[in-house]
Every structure is written in structure tokens, then in C-alpha cells.
Amino acid sequence: MKKGKVKFFNAGKGFGIVIDDSDNSEVFIHFSQIIDDAKILLENEEVEYDVNKSEKGLNAMNLHRSFERRIGRIDSFQSGYGFIKEQTSEEKYFIHYSDIEGDGFKKIEDDFEVEFTPDFSDKGLQAKRVVVRDQRSALQKFALFSDLSTNLRDLTGLAQKEDGNWDYINEKTNEFPVLSSYLTYTFKRLQQENKIEFTSKSNGTKYACFNTGLATKKHEEIFAYFEHIDNNPSKKVFREGYLKKSSWIFDRFDKESYRIMNYFKDKPKLANYFQNPADLIYDTSKRLIPDFDHIADDREKRFPPSFAAMTKAQQVEKIKAAINTALMRIERNYKTAIPQFYDGNLQLLLPLCLDNIENADVALVAAKEGEVYRANTVLSLDWPYNNARLLARPDREWLNP
After folding, report:
1. pLDDT (tens digit, 9 = 90+) per residue, 247-305?
2. Phi then psi dihedrals of residue 181, to 5 deg
3. How far apart, in Å, are the Cα atoms of 320 and each of 226, 342, 351, 352, 353?
4. For residue range 309-361, what is the model confidence (pLDDT) as tens digits?
5. Would you list the DSSP string of 130-194?
6. Within 10 A of 383 (CB to CB), how many other CB atoms are there?
7. Where is 328: in which H helix or E strand?
8. Looking at domain 70-134, which of 2.60.40.10, 2.40.50.140, 1.10.3720.10, 2.40.37.20 is its CATH number?
9. CA 167 → CA 114, 163, 176, 217, 265, distances in Å?
10. Looking at the domain 2-65, which fold is it?
């Protein structure tokens, strides 16, 4: 077998180039020829392979890696660290931000599929040289969308208007970020609650459906409908290479009156995020304990520019004053504290007005722990709006992303 080193590998398209050790020739490698479940090669990784010559050049065959790689899923990731759950053993490996391959901004979210090198330290199992294998959301893994932007545009025309948020479009990417985020996390919750409905007709064709939680101007519920890829074998279906294939194809967003609904025994239910409605309201009888070190030091980039010019002592005093004002506002109007659902938990968002007493600059996140509320972080206003919208349409008194 030949020996060489990986020059580059395109993780999205599944191919790359290996430099042969003997003569520095370039050898093409396709993921299908990698003898390993982990299919993403790392730059400068040492490999062994056979060579096949074709009209297009040299091709690597039966490629073997020099060290072990495993596949897993991000189980949790916050503040630069978290855990990966290994695919076959369910063991959890600690992951630190610095062990993620790549330069610049490294986007890591729960449920992302990754490949990693298993390691062990005095802290236990650790993941090294982590590469994101699949960034698709649970909804995108579930179904294929021919043109998601067009599908979402259709949905904005069908659903009730919400102060311009649903039809807000990023002109650079042609995406609907608020609506896309809402559907992504709504589907994830419905999947966790086993509320995706499935059915089949007498001829064997299969369909799936879920409740979007949205409604038309006439207050008719809106559902997302899907057909199974086997319903029409002749229909061309995009394949994702080494990634897990979707079994469903998006059909349309429509009302309950769409005839496919006739074949579902049960109407798809709404997602549920809480058991006790009282948890949605801030209890002013409980103390709030802010972690000022974490809020001011670790999240300073989320504050307005004027904040950076202050000393740490001045910043803490400013935050204290803004928290007191927020608590006074909540006592006068309980709707000021807006509930959000994040990472499987209910939290409450409080407005912090730092530059101008009338306008919130960031949202303080408060979570109930025992007999108190604890606040460990702040968020810029776009992120919490998406989280809050999962529960209900937020009051727009201050949460205006």
C-alpha cells in the first residue's frame, strides 16, 4: 500500500487530495473509499491506500487511517465547553472550544453530529480534533426541502402577521431567520414529545404531519405536511453522501382542510414547554441573585459600546441599578418578565436599560433554583426573542430585536 498525507478534504462534498510520500503526486480521495465510519479526513493526517489510475488521474482506494476516529453528537455545549455522546457506546466525552478544528467563529450547537479523536485525561474521557460532520437541524435531518426559503415565504403569506418578524428576510442569504429558528426548535420539541403524526393510505403511500403552532388570519391551525420518499420512486431525491438520508420530503404548509389530513386518525398536537403555568410569571417574593463576575466579565461584548469605557466597579453598579429598575417594572406589570425556553428549561428575561432608561440594551436571564432566582448571563435582544416565541408571542414593550 502507498503512504501519504492529506493535503485538504472538503467535509461538505466528501472528497479531497492526498500527497503521496514517495513522489509528492496528488491523489484524489472520495469518502466512499475511506475504510472507517468516520469519513472526514484531517489536514496532514497520515494515511495508507491503494492507487488506481484513471483518465482523470490518480485515485486512492481502500484508504486506512493512522489513528482512531469516532462519530458522536453534541449532547450539550455552553460557554465554550460541553459533552459529546458517542454514537455506539453512548459514553460522553468532554469537549473544549479549543479542540474544535477550524479558524475563526466555530458554530457548535446541541445535536450537531461530529467526528473526533477519543482521548483520556485525569478529568476523564475527552474529545480531541473535533470536526462538525452535520450541521443540519432535526427538521432538516427529518425531511428534504426543495427550496426552504421559498417554503418559508409561502408560510409567511399564510400565517398571522407578527410585527414583521415572520417576513423579516436576510437579504444577503435570502433566509427568514426568525421563522426558520421558530420552526427548527418547535419541531425538535415535538419530536422529543413524540407528537409527529404518521399515516398511510390503503395503496401504501405514507405521510407525516406536525402542528406548527401558527395560525392563519382566520385562526385556523397551520400544519406541515410530508410525503415518504418511497411514495414516488421515480422522483429525483437529493442524497447527502455519507450523511444519514432523510426519509421524508416536504410537501407544504397548509390548514387542516388539506385533504391529506383525512388519513390521520389524530390531529397533530401543539408542542408543550411547561407543566405549571405559574412558572411563566416572575415571583417577586423570591430573591434574585446575580453573578456579577460572570455577567460583566464573560459577557461584556453583549453590552453597548459605552459599557466598555467604564471600570469594572462602574459596570457592576450600572448593572445593579438596571436590575433594580427591572424588578420595579415587574412589580407594576408582570408581563415585563418574559418567559423563554432554552436548553430544555424555562427561564425569565428581564430588561436591562443601561444607556437609556426607556430602551433595553440586553436581556438578563433569570432561572429559578430552589427558593431564589439566579442570573448568570445576559443576551442580546434577537436571540431571546426566538426562544420566547416558542412559548407565545412576546409582549413587545421592550423585547424588540
Report:
1. 999 999 999 999 999 999 999 999 999 989 999 999 999 999 999 988 877 667 788 88
2. -65, -40
3. 50, 24, 12, 9, 11
4. 888 899 999 999 999 999 999 999 999 999 999 878 899 999 999 988 888 99
5. EEEEE---HHHHHEE-S-HHHHHHHHHHHSPP-TTSTT--BTTTTB-HHHHHHHHHHHHHHHHTT
6. 15
7. helix 312-332
8. 2.40.50.140
9. 33, 9, 7, 15, 33
10. OB fold (Dihydrolipoamide Acetyltransferase, E2P) (2.40.50)
CA distance 112 to 229: 24
CB atoms within 10 A of CB 52: 13
β-pairing verdict for 92-96 and 81-86: antiparallel
Cβ(118)–Cβ(82) below 8 Å: no
CB neighbour list of residue 127: distance below 8 Å, 6 or more residues apart? 72, 84, 93, 94, 95, 99, 114, 116, 117, 118, 119
Residue with cell 476516529: 69
Q: Do domains 2-65 and 277-389 have the same CATH topology?
A: no
The CATH architecture that domain 277-389 belongs to is: 2-Layer Sandwich (3.30)
- Residue 263 cell numbers, joined: 388519513
pTM of the model: 0.81
> What distance lies between CA 103 and its chain's CA centroid?
20
C-alpha grid cell, residue 337: 418578565
The SS3 of residue 375 is strand
pLDDT digits (tens, 9 = 90+) for 85-110: 998 888 999 999 899 987 766 778 88
